[in-house]
Amino acid sequence: MTAKQIFLTVAILIFYFVMETNSRFEFTNLNCTSFDMGIGEFEYCNLKSINRSYKYVSGKYKLHQIPLPIMKLNFIMWKRLNGYRPFLYNITVDACRFIENPKSNPVLKYIFDSFTGYSNINHSCPYTSDLIVEKLPIGFLNHRVTEILPIPEGNYLFEFRLIRLKSIFASIQVYFTIS
Ligand SMILES: *[C@@H]1O[C@H](CO)[C@@H](O)[C@H](O)[C@H]1NC(C)=O
Ligand SMILES: *[C@@H]1O[C@H](CO)[C@@H](O)[C@H](O)[C@H]1NC(C)=O
Ligand SMILES: *[C@@H]1O[C@H](CO)[C@@H](O)[C@H](O)[C@H]1NC(C)=O
Ligand SMILES: *[C@@H]1O[C@H](CO)[C@@H](O)[C@H](O)[C@H]1NC(C)=O
């Protein structure tokens, strides 16, 4: 099957979970790691709780090399069973080509659309200023994940690896549960 067919199949399968309107999305952890300080580093990357209903995620990747070099983005979805196992998606794209044509990858486009409204990253290459995600509200994600494209209950990890010349220079791990 092509990526598009897989996406459609999955979309149809999870359609059945739409009935479970009580499902809830909760961030459990966030782990941003810089492996190559020559390229950049995370100045912050955190989850803040203002009160029971208002929580948000913020992060800043400070560029040490300008512009940000041509890179590949590898997205892996993991689900916790006995330890985390790859689940459904393991996608690698050329980051600049994807940004210029997000429709080329519906899965990544869905994720991208979930946070770009709260960031400064929705523009074509080159990237010459620090990458910032500011106060992305969890309520917004909860709506997107559980009502627009619900996924089955469980513990998940979305991992994003930024790759240049076959080596990972930064990674972002987003742990969440759907209950
Ligand atoms: C964060 O991610 C890095 C890179 O994958 C890993 O080495 C480290 O153990 C992780 N830290 C935590 C607390 O999970
Ligand atoms: C939570 O904090 C936000 C922002 O300060 C505020 O607008 C909202 O009313 C608060 N909600 C509750 C239940 O206190
Ligand atoms: C993702 O796919 C690539 C290419 O097929 C493979 O080399 C890599 O091991 C996979 N990663 C995981 C975590 O399964
Ligand atoms: C990203 O930018 C493009 C072009 O300016 C725009 O059409 C699109 O709606 C933007 N996407 C988001 C999620 O803001």
TrEMBL record:
Q: Kindly indicate whether the keyword Repeat belongs to this entry.
A: no
InterPro entries, per the entry:
DUF1091
Keyword field: Signal
Asked whether the keyword Magnesium is assigned, the reply is no
Q: Signal peptide span per the entry?
A: 1-23
By its UniProt entry, which SMART domains does this protein fall under? DM8 (SM00697)
Q: What name has this protein been given in UniProt? A: GG11787
Organism, scientific name = Drosophila erecta
